[in-house]
Amino acid sequence: SFYFRPCSEDSSYETIDILPDIASSPSIKLTDDTPVSNRTEPLTGEEFQSFLDQDGRLVNEIGLRKAIFLGSVDSSIRKQVWQFLFGLYPCTSTKRERDALLIDYIIKYHELKNRWKTMLVIDSKPGDTEIKTKYTPRPLDLSLLDQTNISEHINTPDMEQKIEFMKIQAQVYVQRQRLDIEELKNQIRVIDKDVPRTDRDEEFFRGAGNPRLTELREILITFAGFSPDLGYAQGMNDILARFLYVMGSEVETFWCFYHYMEKIKEDFMEVGMVKKIELVKMLLGEIDNSLLHHFECHDMGNLFFCHRWLLLGFKREFTFQDSLKCFEILSSQHLELSSMEAETAVRREEMKEFANTGDLVLYLFFWLSFLKLF
């Protein structure tokens, strides 16, 4: 069976296969005493600093995610928080280690862009004018380091030597990446249709010749070229726009987007899409079964209209600023962490009860003998 979903803001539609045999998830149990989270004010800079140690490590990740879930993040510190929230930097990294990692990000992204741009020119043929542009490899731009502690040492012989070595490593890394230039050309055509209509009502993206649109395009092409299993899909431009608005720099935006897409890439595939909608249907059946029945009576029981909400995190249902808050709250994964903690506590109590019966040793010996059979 099939269904149709809107591909973009225009009236075009894409056919999506509905895959059968989706594994059913366990039923959801709700009780009258199910706790409801109390909302708080957005996370402030002072509160954020309390989650870090003196070297800049994030030492209370669970506390940070809970604070984000309950109140979102103040816009003045959103960039620093998102760097941890979306995996740009490890929580255990120090400020100094993050500065060094930023250099690596800059160089790798520079080499990734150089490769696909060079390959487009090499592979160009007469009549390819809509894609082909004259391209001269640009020098490495390290201006992003001006805001770090490395900036004052960037021109020292020792640092220049380290950067040259990192360039070689990045070139090796990039050459190992598979790049299908013909497929990339097809994806560029789609990207070039979507980028010009991305959040144009926002001041950040408004105006003819806005350089932010060029940055969106460069990032999407780079991601599509070096993510062959996923490529580019409509909707990615909407997700990327939020990252670019918050992070401000092309390099940091690319790597935040890259890490985020690694986590949610199933959502852009048929299996992941159907699975999420099935979970929503199951949840609605537990919370408001009469509403689900109403949808079913009006041939809307498949809940396909929820797909855009889930894929884009309600981006088009709220104002841009509110959608940022919604995005970070949904990405905090606080409820998932709480569920795992609860499950661990239940298992711990079960083990204690089991141990009190005196049968634990017998249990362990049974499994040891069982494993020896293999």
Report on this model:
Strand 1 and strand 2 (13-17) form a beta hairpin. The two termini are 43 Å apart. The longest helix has 29 residues, at 95-123. The chain is built from 15 helices and 2 strands. The protein has helices at 45-49, 61-71, 78-85, 95-123, 157-175, 181-194, 211-225, 236-247, 250-264, 270-287, 289-297, 307-312, 320-331, 334-356, 360-372; strands at residues 2-6, 13-17. By secondary structure, it is mostly helical. It has a two-stranded antiparallel ribbon with strand order 1-2. Among the domains are: 92-265, no CATH class; 336-372. The protein is globular. Helix 4 (95-123) packs across helix 7, helix 4 (95-123) crosses helix 9 and helix 8 crosses helix 9 (250-264). Helix content is 56%, strand content 3%. Residues 72-334 form the Rab-GAP TBC domain. This is Rab-GAP TBC domain-containing protein. Pfam families: RabGAP-TBC. It comes from Lottia gigantea (Giant owl limpet). One of its GO terms (molecular function) is GTPase activator activity.
Instruction: Characterize the main sheet.
Output: 2 strands, antiparallel
The neighbouring-strand order within the major sheet is: 1-2
- The amount of beta strand, in percent, is under 5%
Query: Per the principal axes of the C-alpha atoms, what is the gross shape?
Result: globular
Q: How many beta-strand elements? A: 2
Secondary structural class: mainly alpha
Radius of gyration: 25 Å
Cα separation of the termini: 43 Å
Number of discrete helical segments: 15
The overall pLDDT, averaged over residues, is 81
Helix-strand string: EEHHHHHHHHHHHHHHH
Which percent bin holds the helix content? 55-70%
Poorly predicted tracts of residues:
1-26
